[in-house]
Structures are given as C-alpha cells and as structure tokens.
Write a structure and sequence with these properties.
- It is a single chain.
- With about 110 residues, the protein is of the alpha/beta class.
- It is built from five helices and five strands, in the order H-E-H-E-H-E-H-E-H-E.
- It has a single domain, classed as 3-Layer(aba) Sandwich (Oxidized Rhodanese, domain 1).
- About 45% of the residues lie in helices and about 15% in strands.
- Strand 4, helix 5 and strand 5 form a beta-alpha-beta unit.
- It starts with a helix and ends in a 9-residue tail after the last strand.
- The model has no long low-confidence stretch (mean pLDDT about 90).
Length: about 110
C-alpha cells in the first residue's frame, strides 16, 4: 500500500509527458524504445505512427506482460488526444514499468 502511494505521489510530481519532437529524439537515441498505440483496433488500422505497436487501452492489464516483456524498457504511449494514453501510462506504471512516457496531446498534438 505504501509503495502504491509513493508511485501516485511521484507520478503527480513528474508526469513524464513529452511532445512529439522529444519522442522522435528519444526513439532516434534509443532504437529499442517502444512506441505503443493504445487506441482501438479500428483507429490503429485507419492509421498509426510508423513502427508503433498496438495494445488497446482496455487490454493493457491483460496483455501488457505478453507484449512488453522488459519492464525496464522505455515506452512511449499515445492515442488521439492524450487522454487514453495518460490512463495507459498510469496502468503500466502501476504494473511496475519504470520508463513510461505519454505523448502530450496524442496524435492531435503532432504538427506534420
């Protein structure tokens, strides 16, 4: 219980939200960074960021450990607006993933 409280307090001080430019830089510097799309399957199939993996927000608790086997790996989560990915970030952090970043404003925040 105390450990969970520490994570919540720490998360509120450091949200780990990054913009698209920072995300691209992180991926370039560390090619093993995982770009995780947490939108619906239909949204993902309609278009997604290159090299991203799909894991719907609603399946994260059930399937994350199958897809994201290394809890020390850097993970950048995104959705359309940043809301679902923020929730996904919190779930993954609660599951023990240490380096999870949320793409600020999601795909809506990207200047193409």
């Amino acid at each position: 219980m105390l450990e969970k409280l520490k994570r919540i307090l720490y998360r509120s001080m450091l949200s780990n939200e990054i913009d698209y430019k920072t995300a691209k830089q992180m991926i370039n510097e560390n090619p093993t960074t995982i770009l995780l799309d947490v939108r619906s399957k239909q949204e993902y199939e309609e278009g997604h960021l290159p090299c991203s993996q799909f894991l719907c927000l609603y399946d994260i608790k059930k399937d994350a450990q199958k897809i994201l086997v290394n809890k020390d790996e850097t993970i950048i989560v995104y959705c359309s607006s940043g809301s679902r990915s923020k929730k996904a970030q919190e779930i993954l952090q609660d599951m023990g993933y240490k380096h999870v970043y949320n793409l600020k404003k999601g795909l809506d925040g990207i200047d193409y």
